[in-house]
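Task card 7
Instruction: Convert sequence to structure tokens.
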Amino acid sequence: MKPGFYNVSLIAQSKLFENSEKKVFSKIIKINNPPIIDIPKIIFACLGDEVILDASKSYDPDNDKLKFTWEIESSKKSGSKILHKFEKSGEYKVKLLIEDDSNTNCGKSEVEILIIINSPPAAVTEKNISGFTGGAYDAVLFDASKSYDEEGDGLTFEWDFGDGEKAFGSTVFHNYKRVGNYKAALKVSDGKNSKCSEALVKISVTINKRK
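Output:
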């Protein structure tokens, strides 16, 4: 049965008397569909940013008017689109309740949204490095093992040595083939899908000829 209003009639007549009066009972019944919620179930954001919670694409199949209620950090907010700023990094659960105006048991839908507030990793390494070339043991050490992430996320390390070569790992060695000054870089990532998932450190490398 499609959603909408239906006029339902019940006809009652006594079986004891053939010509007894028929009684008709009518009632209008509404067949309702619950609202459809359209919002991501997981949202990544950076510490200090206002998080946009946007459920404005949600709709009601019956075109009923909708009411939006958010439960977020022990408070309630209303509206299809809200802003909220979290003061600490971590994971937060937000509940969204959408109700139509049908006044029926199936006139509401609810969803739980996971908000992940991320802080960028701290990339710790030497910013000025000197080394040599021409010797058998002139590999230059690049060490970022003291880097860390406040949320305890696992980190990945990508080194760009400035000579067209790259390497991965918290501690690596690299042999420069020529004397000169190089602009190297370290990129540390915590793997979170946010604009604050990475930290970049620029490194000045001076390579001399071993005498």
